[in-house]
Amino acid sequence: MTIDELTRNRSAWLRADMPMSEIVISSRIRLARNVAGFPFLAKADTVQRREIYRLLRDSIDRANVAEDLTFIDLENVEEVDRQVLVERHLISKQHAESDGSRAVAFSPEETVSLMINEEDHLRMQVLRSGLQMDECWNVISRIDNSIEEFIDFAFHTRFGYLTACPTNVGTGIRVSAMLHLPALKLTGEMDRAFRAAKDMHLAIRGLHGEGTEASGDIYQISNQTTLGKSEEEIISEFKHLIIPKLVEYEKRARQALISERSVALDDKIWRAYGILVHARAISTEEALHLISHVRMGVSLGRVDSIKLETLNDLFLMIQPAHLQKIARKRLSGEERSIARADLIRKRLNGASSN
Amino acid sequence: MMCQRCKKRDATVHLTEIIHGEKAEKHLCEQCAAEENITVKQPQLNELLANFVKSQAAAGEVANITCQACGMTFAEFRSGGLLGCPYDYDAFEKALTPLIKRAHEEGSQHVGKVPQRAGIAQERQHELMRARRELAAAVDREDYELAAKLRDQIKNLEKA
Q: Could you tell me the pTM of the whole model?
């Protein structure tokens, strides 16, 4: 699959077809691994970096990780293409912007992505729609095992899998969920949820991970502890404790809005809808904000002509690199605003059939 | 280091206070620190590193510890936040362990998944790394005789 084709693809993890999908957009598990016998990237020269790349690529090929993996050498693609991959959550911002030989391999449904030479030699991730932590874990653990048949990963009996940053050492696991929490934001209770999350040793980040803003009321919540707990323990806490708790907070806030500020709530939702289907130019920030309100309206059954999946997809499609890929040319900020408004109108007006 | 207050748990909170012009050091475990209302927020790695190094009487010594496999110093790690090679975990063990414990809710022993194959012995991993580093240096110096020797050595290590 080429990057152009990607922008016409619909990532399977945006399907919104699972229980709790109205709040839990997606689940993700990532594992960090390093090839034994090589320094981490901070101390690897260009020759070693290329060698690590070659060894991993070879192992991934031989391991037959997934059908039809697309391999993209990031050193040799344009910036806008790397940006598309970031917007689709297939690579990290850091991976897009760093230097030297590095690559990504992903599956056609975009649910598996393997980053070579990111912060660690290999970072593997599996994405699923809704709350599907066990499914993510089963797939990623199998991938880990199959690659490991062909290559040795740096491992320590006391510290477990060794990673470039000691905050990832041990299991090397990062379990995260992407949550849509508009009602907590509207009722001003986000701070309380944040504090609860911090008490549980969790990190909360924005739409695109580390150091990004929580645009469109989308938050990524993930574990920080990776040593001293097994993968199953960490996953189970997420599945049974953390996510259900946050979902419950959000649901309660939504119910409070319905029972106490029902007119104001509908006003917000329908104004957002009105702007989205009529605007002729719109910024990313405003669009995300309004899509978020409409999305809440859809999941509360107050707007029934649009599917959640359409809105999930819009969260990706309206971003700068995607718009430029669709237009097949570089667009200025102003041109992007116009293209964005056009795309949203087209998608939402034909929404019921989409 | 033991917690000064309960004298049971490891001290992980290290503070320097100036009281009446006198410098006083406090070393507490997280629980005692919380009871003394010294809030322990979720530690950021850089912050952790800075505090830890400040708390070391012999900060200079810690900073100068050098990994024999990759050449990284602890000071270098401290400023960049990333380690240089797997062997650093052993080379910096004393300095790293308290940091690791704080970053992982006191966890200091891996209990999760282990590689299915035994994997190559740690020692051989380090030897490989050292040989690869020496090879790069030999090639730089255009010492092709040594380079050829090192290449053979690497091949053998990979095969073994």
A: 0.82
3-state secondary structure of A11: coil
Q: Phi and psi at residue A103, in whole multiples of 5°?
A: -155, 170
CB contact under 8 A, B111 and A230: yes
Of A37, A155, A162, the CB nearest to B114: A155
**ipTM of predicted complex:** 0.88
Per-residue model confidence (pLDDT) at position A208: 62
Tokens standing for residue B64: 């100068």
Residue A261 CA to residue A266 CA, distance in Å, equals 9
Q: Cβ A198–B114 below 8 Å, yes or no?
A: no
CB A104 within 8 A of CB A115: yes
Please tell me what DSSP assigns to residue B66. B
**Helix (H/G/I), strand (E/B), else coil: A336:** helix
pLDDT of residue A61: 93
Interchain proximity A39–B82, CB inside 8 Å: no
**A133 Rama sector, left if φ>0, alpha if ψ -120 to 50, beta otherwise:** alpha
pLDDT score at A193: 83
Query: What value does the mean pLDDT of chain A take?
Result: 92
Alpha helices in B27-141 (DSSP H): 30-35, 45-55, 59-64, 74-80, 88-91, 93-103, 122-140
The CA-based angle A111-A115-A121, given to 5 degrees, is 145
Confidence of residue B46 (pLDDT cuts 50, 70, 90): low
What radius of gyration, in Å, describes the C-alpha atoms of chain B? 21
Which residues lie closer than 8 Å to B17 by C-beta, 6 or more apart? B23, B24, B25, B26
| Mutation target vs A (from B40, B70, B110, B157; most A CBs, 10 A cutoff) | B110
Cα–Cα distance, A244 to A200 (Å, whole number): 14
Nearest to A186 by CA among A310, A296, A276, A275: A296
Contact partners, residue A51, CB within 8 Å, separation at least 6: A38
CA neighbor of A195 nearest in space, from A153, A155, A239, A249: A249
Query: Is pLDDT above 60 for B18?
Result: no
- Mean of the pLDDT values across residues A151-169? 94
Distance between CA atoms of residues A125 and A95, nearest Å: 14
Bridge partners, B13 (sequence order): B28
Q: Are A226 and B89 in contact (CB < 8 Å)?
A: no
Give the single-character DSSP code of A57. Answer: H
Distance from the first to the final alpha carbon of chain A: 23
| Residue among A36, A165, A224 minimizing CB distance to B119 | A36
Task: Tell which residue, A180, A155, A7, A191, has the closest CA to residue A81.
Answer: A7
By DSSP bridging, strand A160-161 and strand A155-156 are: antiparallel
Convert the pLDDT of each residue in A192-201 to its tens digit.
888 888 888 8
